[in-house]
């Protein structure tokens, strides 16, 4: 099976230019924007080796834009299965040299290339890097590139997913941040017009991040499952991978958001805000006090909305 996939891609690479290397339509394409231009570089190779434990299948393309600080270059890789857990052996399709992985345009370029060359009925876009969520005092977010000094803001991420939906021809079926502190309503709101299901962690992620081998293995068993079920498998396998004791991962979190329901949440929050503002002075003071005492994640302004 995998030999057939590789032969088809190699044939396409030899016969047509990069802009027209279309493969056969599959059920899914997973596009991983792996920014290792920082201190996470070693973990990029580890996660690629996890992906290679399963590799791409007849129904799922696994494609990675892999930036490595050690190499100081960015490569586009089609992930294939191997039995070498310490060595990345997947098919390198392009070497882009040093490009800015902290630029949202670079993310969109990768997605456009992936859509053109690996067409699928559904797309899962995964941005892999450090994440800082959305602060009230700064609009930092994800994909920090130490070489350029740039990163992708919450607003820019939303714009990139909007452009991605246009390229795909429908909403991005599944978007996930394999990064810390991204499971926020503020981030989800920016994505809600262009993404169906969003996966993110409210808390800091362990350095090992997502368990790609376990996730891909379960996903490959039934690639035609609903998108929400794919997200459930990811969240389940992530939590399960840390159950037995990475000491630093005692309080891991990962959640999947159905963004079609975001307008309901926004309407409810507006109504709640109006009720608070209509309180008497004493009531507003009490509400403000309670607002300073919720469950928080990592930072004092990363508060649990429901709490």
Task: Tell me what the structure shows.
The protein is α/β, with parallel strands linked by helices. Helix content is 37%, strand content 21%. It is built from 9 helices and 10 strands. The strands form 2 sheets. An 8-stranded mixed β-sheet has the order 4-3-2-1-5-8-9-10, with helices on both faces. It has a two-stranded antiparallel ribbon with strand order 6-7. Helix 2 (41-52) runs parallel beside helix 6, helix 3 (104-117) packs parallel to helix 4 (154-168) and helix 6 (212-221) runs antiparallel to helix 7. The radius of gyration is 20 Å and the shape is globular. The N and C termini lie far apart (49 Å).
Topology at a glance:
Elements (H helix, E strand, L loop, with lengths): L1 H14 L10 E11 L4 H12 L7 E9 L4 E6 L12 E7 L6 H14 L2 E9 L13 E4 L4 E3 L1 H15 L3 E7 L6 H7 L3 E6 L11 H10 L5 H15 L13 E4 L3 H16 L3 H11 L16
Helix pairs in contact: 2-6, 3-4, 4-5, 6-7
By secondary-structure content and strand pairing, the structural class works out as alpha/beta
Task: Give helix % range.
Answer: 25-40%
Outline the biggest β-sheet: 8 strands, mixed
Helix/strand order: HEHEEEHEEEHEHEHHEHH
- Number of separate strands: 10
Going across the biggest sheet, name each strand in turn: 4-3-2-1-5-8-9-10
Low-confidence stretches: 11-21
**First-to-last CA distance:** 49 Å
Can you tell me the overall shape? Answer: globular
Q: How much β-strand is present in the residues?
A: 15-25%
């Amino acid at each position: 099976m995998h030999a057939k996939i590789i032969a088809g891609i190699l044939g396409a690479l030899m016969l047509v230019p990069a802009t027209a290397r279309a493969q056969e339509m599959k059920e899914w394409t997973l596009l991983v924007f792996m920014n290792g231009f920082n201190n996470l570089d070693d973990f990029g190779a580890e996660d690629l080796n996890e992906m290679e434990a399963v590799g791409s299948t007849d129904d799922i393309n696994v494609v990675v834009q892999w930036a490595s600080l050690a190499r100081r270059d960015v490569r586009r890789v089609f992930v294939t299965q191997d039995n070498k857990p310490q060595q990345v052996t997947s098919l390198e399709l392009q070497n882009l040299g040093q490009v800015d992985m902290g630029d949202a345009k670079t993310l969109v370029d990768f997605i456009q290339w992936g859509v053109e060359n690996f067409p699928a009925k559904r797309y899962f876009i995964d941005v892999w890097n450090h994440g800082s969520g959305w602060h009230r005092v700064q609009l930092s977010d994800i994909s920090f590139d130490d070489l350029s000094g740039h990163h992708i803001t919450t607003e820019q991420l939303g714009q990139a997913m909007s452009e991605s939906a246009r390229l795909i021809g429908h909403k991005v079926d599944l978007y996930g941040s394999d990064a810390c502190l991204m499971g926020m309503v503020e981030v989800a709101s920016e994505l809600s017009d262009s993404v169906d299901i969003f996966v993110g962690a409210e808390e800091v992620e362990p350095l090992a991040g997502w368990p790609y081998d376990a996730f891909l293995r379960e996903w490959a068993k039934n690639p035609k499952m609903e998108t929400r079920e794919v997200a459930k498998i990811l969240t389940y396998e992530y939590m399960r991978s840390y159950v037995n004791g990475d000491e630093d991962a005692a309080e891991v979190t990962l959640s999947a958001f159905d963004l079609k329901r975001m307008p309901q949440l926004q309407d409810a929050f507006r109504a709640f805000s109006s009720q608070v503002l209509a309180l008497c002075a004493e009531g507003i003071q009490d509400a403000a006090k309670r607002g300073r005492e919720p469950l928080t994640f990592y930072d004092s302004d990363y508060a649990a909305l429901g709490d």
